[in-house]
Structure formats: C-alpha cells, structure tokens
Design goal:
Distance between the termini: 56 Å
Strand content: 5-15%
Radius of gyration: 22 Å
Helix content: 55-70%
Order of helices and strands: HHHHHHEE
Number of helices: 6
Shape: elongated
Largest sheet: 2 strands, antiparallel
Length: 160
Amino acid sequence: MSRKSQQKSARKASKWKMSTPRAHRFTPPLPAAQTRPVIKISEAILKLAEPLRARYKEPHRLQAIISMAVMAWNISLFPDEEHVHLQGMLLESLPPQLGGEDVGVLLRTIDTLMARKRLLYPHVREYILTHELTLVDDKVTLSVGTAPVPEKIQRRSSSS
C-alpha cells in the first residue's frame, strides 16, 4: 500500500471515529407520545389472535388469521369514524367469489380482533408495516416491522 493510500485510509478512519460518537450524542430523544412500546408487537399480535389460533391449526388458516389480526390492529389505530371507510377499502380488494356470508364473517372477525386490541393494548400506537409468519412443526414465529403513529391520524385528502 502506498504512503498516499495509507494517509487517506487513516483520514477516513479518523473521520469515522470522530463522527460516530457525535451522531449518537446529539440524537434527540423521541417525544413522550412517540416512545416505543415496551411490549413486542409480534407477541401482541399472536396474543390477539390466540382464540382463533387455538381453534384453527392448519398453516393456511394460521396465515389468514395473522393477516386479519394485523389488519385489525392497523385499523384500530384510526379514529372510529374512519373504520367503515377502511373496511370498505378492504372489501374492495377481496376476491369477487366471496359470498355475503363470508364477507360478514370476515368483518365480524376483524371487529372482534379490534375490540381485543383496544382491550389488551389501548395505548400502543405502532403501525404494522410488514409481517412474516414462520411455521416449523408446532412452533409459530412472527416477525413484524412497525412505525410509531401519532395520537391522531387523518385520512389524506384525495385532491393534492
């Protein structure tokens, strides 16, 4: 390695050493309303879905149950007056071959899961962005990606 290359590497290492601690020192803490929850959201979703998970053990049903629990969790973060609109958006994305009874069961299940979320985790304001369910033998593992949500969520205006 040439002398010039060694000097350049030393400068880069020096800059990196100086900038890393400084970046951590000046990172402002999250406001009290946006502090991260103490619970693990993945465990909360599994607990939310526990009554359904106990009843239906097939992998494809467990996948559907967890997806519904995630939808219910996210919908529950919105004001009550927005729930009908959000459920309407969900209904628009369902396959057309689902009958009225199937849709009714789906909506009742989501309402039940939302009520459990409000009962068990009323102050947790984390939106679930992604989730991945892994089933190996009888072990269920759920990984989620979340983001904090403000206390009040408003629907985006369609005219921007």
